[in-house]
Amino acid sequence: MEGLVTLLEANRPTVQSADGQTYLCYLKGRIKRDVGRIMVGDRVQFEPTDEGEARIDAVLPRANQLLRPPVANVSGLLVVYSLAEPQGSLELLDKRLVMAHLTGLEAEIIISKTDVAPDPSALRDLVERYREIGYRVWLVSSPQRWGITEMLEYPRTGIWVLTGESGVGKSTLLKALLPDALASTQALSRGGRGQQTTRWVRLYRMPAGYWLADSPGYTALETAVAEPSRILAAFDDLTGWECRFSDCLHGLEPGCGVVEAVQRGHVAEWRWRHYRKLVSEWVKKSY
Ligand SMILES: Nc1nc2c(ncn2[C@@H]2O[C@H](COP(=O)(O)OP(=O)(O)OP(=O)(O)O)[C@@H](O)[C@H]2O)c(=O)[nH]1
Ligand SMILES: [Mg+2]
Ligand SMILES: [Zn+2]
């Protein structure tokens, strides 16, 4: 039979078959040595052995794989950013968007906790900036259920991953979207300050037919140590400006059209700063 790995808890894969049955799986033979290489999102061939248990015989080839969070065969990222409690990092938001681009994935932005956003004009500015670049931006509040119906009705296919820093509200959003799901209790553990912090990536089947992954809040991202031209290509808002030098890296070169666009407010200063930082990380690694 064929199935999808929906959870990998302490190295034990849970596989769901097309008819919705779930099996706690073990690995045998040659594949057993590959246990560290199975990921949530993998399609596998398996054989039921006992009540609710099965043996995985083969992992099918992957279309792609993300390492943070670890998920295979991903269609897109839903990057969750929170303006308050705690305020998120725009640098990490941009890094995640770059990571999506480098992996060849779609990316959308979810601004969470809009019920406690302290500054409506900062919120508006942020939303406008990213929409201008071309990102779809969702505004949600899970306790107020703002934006929930819109998200539920939006059509998607494949595997989408909720990603973002710890505490931005990924699991709470998932519960608001899927109140009947197991409430992800098995995937939660007690964290600091009495909060529940997610430990395992887990896939949930959405009413619209796609899969949505909840994931732990990674902050260390081994993302974008890529060539400057590849990083630049991930910043749509920084491309298309005219510079004096054709190989301009939009730093301190004279006659840089990007720097001018930043000074005139056409490009958000933080976007340019984050681009520069990613380029300098690449420069550091490559010498
Ligand atoms: N006011 C408000 N609080 C929220 C909202 N969403 C989540 N919270 C609260 O924020 C805290 C963290 O939420 P979680 O859903 O656990 O955050 P997470 O992103 O899953 O965190 P990790 O699993 O650690 O990565 C909880 O106390 C939630 O009740 C929201 O939309 N509005
Ligand atoms: Mg969580
Ligand atoms: Zn330039």
Give a structural overview.
The structure is a single chain. By secondary structure, the chain is an alpha/beta fold. The protein has 3 domains: 2-59, Nucleic acid-binding proteins (OB fold (Dihydrolipoamide Acetyltransferase, E2P), Beta Barrel), CATH 2.40.50; 65-214, P-loop containing nucleotide triphosphate hydrolases (Rossmann fold, 3-Layer(aba) Sandwich); 228-285, Orthogonal Bundle (Ribonucleotide Reductase Protein R1, domain 1), CATH 1.10.40.50. The chain has 7 helices and 15 strands. The chain has helices at residues 90-103, 120-133, 148-153, 170-177, 228-233, 257-263, 269-285; strands at residues 2-9, 12-17, 22-27, 43-50, 53-59, 65-67, 70-72, 76-82, 106-112, 137-139, 159-163, 188-190, 196-198, 202-205, 211-214. The strands form 4 sheets. A 6-stranded mixed β-sheet has the order 10-9-8-11-15-14, with helices on both faces. Helix 1 (90-103) crosses helix 7 (269-285). The longest helix is centred in the C-terminal third of the chain and has 17 residues, at 269-285. The radius of gyration is 21 Å and the shape is globular. It starts with a strand and ends with a helix. The protein binds guanosine-5'-triphosphate, magnesium ion and zinc ion (ZN). The site of zinc ion has 7 residues, from helix 6. Residues 243, 248, 250, 253, 256-258 line the site of zinc ion.
